[in-house]
Amino acid sequence: MSVMYLLIALSLLLAASFLISFIFAIRDGQYDDKYTPSVRILFDDEPSGKSSPKSTSDRSKTKQ
Amino acid sequence: MMSVDTKEHVACTHCGEPCEDEPILEGVNSFCCTGCNTVYNLLHESGLAAYYELDENTPGISMRKSSTKRFEHLDDPTVSHRILDFTDGKTARVTFKTPQIHCSSCIWLLENLHRLNPAVKSSEVFFGRREAAIQFDIKELPLSKLAALLASIGYEPDLSLDKLDQKYEAPSNRPIYLKIGIAGFAFGNIMLFSLPEYLSGSAGLDAQFLTLFGALNIILALPVFFYSALDFYRPALTGIKQRQWNMDIAISIGIIAMFGRSLYEILSGYGVGYMDSFAMLVFLLLVGRLFQKKTYDTLSFERDFKAYFPLSVTRLQGTSEESVAATRLEEGDTVLIRNGELLPADSILIDQEAYMDFSFVTGESEPVKLKKGDLVYAGGRNTSTAVRFKLSKAVSGSYLTRLWNNEEFRKPREETLRSVSQNFSRYFSPIVLSIAAIAAIYWMPSSPATAINAFTAVLIIACPCALALSAPFTLGWSTNILGRNKLYLKNGETTEHLATVDAIVFDKTGTLTVRDKAEVSFIGRQLSQHELRLLKTLLNQNTHPIGRAVFHYVESLNIPTNGKDLSISNYNEYPGKGVEANIGNDVVKAGSASFTHIEKQPISSKSSVLYVSFNGEVPGYFAVTNRYREGLTTLLTHLKSRVQTFLLSGDNEREKENLAPLFANESNLRFGQSPQDKLDFVKQLREQGKHVLMIGDGLNDAGALRASTVGVSIAEDTSSFTPASDVIMDADSLRKLDSVLDFSKRSVRIIHISFAISILYNIIGLAYAVTGTLSPLICAIIMPVSSISVILFTTLATHYAAKKRGLNI
Fold first, then answer.
1. Is B619 part of any domain?
2. I need a labelling partner for B281 at 20 to 30 A (CA). Which of A47, B6, B303, B451 fits?
3. In a mutagenesis test of the B interface, which of A6, A17, A22 is the best target, namely the one with the most B β-carbons within 10 Å?
4. What's the pLDDT tens digit per position in B208-225?
5. Would you call B721 helix, strand, or coil by DSSP?
6. Are residues B532 and B505 in the same domain?
7. A24 inside 8 A of chain B by CB
8. What pLDDT does B5 receive?
9. Residue A54: which of B47, B173, B206 has the nearest Cβ?
């Protein structure tokens, strides 16, 4: 039965790590704006590929 | 009806709005104005054309709407200090409110600002709050240039005077998430450690494990008791201090009894305690709190005049112009107010004449004609060309500002009504405490241990978990449902206040009527282009509202001008009759039937008419109807039969005939009301014991909104300025007001019913508790079952109630 102690310790550790990551996520501001990130993730670096060659941005050059 | 040669309306490539004037053509694209054209080219040159492909709807912002303002004053250190989030002299961070953000393309463009200007380091959009946080190189790109850059692509930052007063702090939900997270974590784990005991039956658990689980449960419960439950102790303490029973006192008693008894049981080895029920209780209650806490980040319910006034004004010093913050203006300064700009302080007109629109401040819909030397009150919008004013007072001492010094604004708004649950808990806690005491006294002589058991058990089982969830969930849902119907409540309690309303006070201009819009139609033979041109020239001078309406109508027809202006002479206005002038070789008249020498024709009484005459010939008349909001007649007739309705208008009595039949009697309509009159009238109704709902839109209603039980400010566009109120309502939803009031009454009824349900559970539990034999298992079953059934009931009942009343759900 002593294996139970190990299991209990492990389960608590696991649960605590979830709690800590949740607290971290809150502190990080992930719950402050729940809409924008859902849109942002869908933007490509260069969504259409039709942009004019004049673009000087370094971001567009380093895409993909 | 006159037929207008309508050209095919082309949609603007940038903003998607129909091009009313001559569209600007460029290749296959057409633009409604040069502003849109410029933005389009700018985006294309910077490789940001994808903007137009991200959103199927119209991403662009019509540049016709935004005025070109200057932002130089932002570089003034005292101003920039207030606006910048931080700066180290090189890089700076600023959070701008840009209400124009409306789609995913906006997010994309604003987050790609660095491609438009390399001095922008990074930018991040907070869609919910309509904000953009921008990090930039302040040496290369001063704040003023950054604001101008945003304005040039259509996202002009919202910079009003109140920004200078205090830094805007976004409300944060972080603490409550944290508390829920911890309570949920503890609840789940305590449940795991408690289950073995419930399932082990009569044999009982190994003593070793019992001790271990007990110890772990205590450790897990500690943060819940000392941190997560804090939100309940604080209001409970205030309640005790004010000697008022509130729901939080009942909850706190339950929580403390549960935690204390469990602690005692575990430490003494007497039992396993109720730690699982305790953690679940706190968790569920916090979820209820969060649910009720739904707020509308984009809306502000606390705006005062400062949010309406501009941040900066053009000051004249000699011949040079400079842009200064409005708060720094002093008495005696000379300011230049351009067309469309606001006058920030009481002033005296220096130029010969000017036209000012005071409709937002006084409710008077006619623009006022001012002569040199006239004293003008702050808040007027210039509708003529740029004029100069000399300030006679500083901004803070102006007439409009003084309204805010009224006592109504000084004292914090008292809780006008006791909420349903407050009313209920006045009886609840004393009754529970006396039951517990009676049980204890009953057992005391035979067995003191059972007496203590019974006492705590009663407190535990009577802990109003389901009861405390009834109101938050019902109010949370109704706030949600009303939000979907474009009625945004300041908080959940507003629903309860709405349910009590028995008198409704309407403002007229902008509330019952649509601001700036009148329906104009011409009845008679078709007018030639030349005649329309004559009419436009004649009415250009006129300030009478009917004349203005016809002028705007003629102007919207876009008659080509032939390149030269018509010369006007002998212009004469005859008050109450009409206007007359010689234009070119023609004599043009516009006015009443008798003025144009024609028999009056029977016309529907709802419209005002303007006859026109060219060289003595009368081709017909214009019918001008003030545009009332859709469904108004039905709404007012319905409301009239159920509550008292009143009309307070700052305008003159012109519309009285049209409106009087919609109200119970004529004395309910009052015209020419000053902001102070409105405030006093609402106060007077309150003193008669009425629960007053005030609906208004302008600064002139601000006092009355504040004094009412529920203040509703109505807005065509909810991101625009709305005076401080309890509810912000989209103008389209006005016709639903009837159902909304009905629905809030039903919501309060639902709270009552769910109270009854949870009391039923309490009575079942109490039957066990008074005998002193409340097993933790029964407690662990009754608590979630009662809570979940109450949540289910309120959810279903509110949605059903909304559906039945034709509200969107």
1. yes
2. B451
3. A22
4. 888 888 899 999 999 999
5. coil
6. no
7. no
8. 41
9. B47
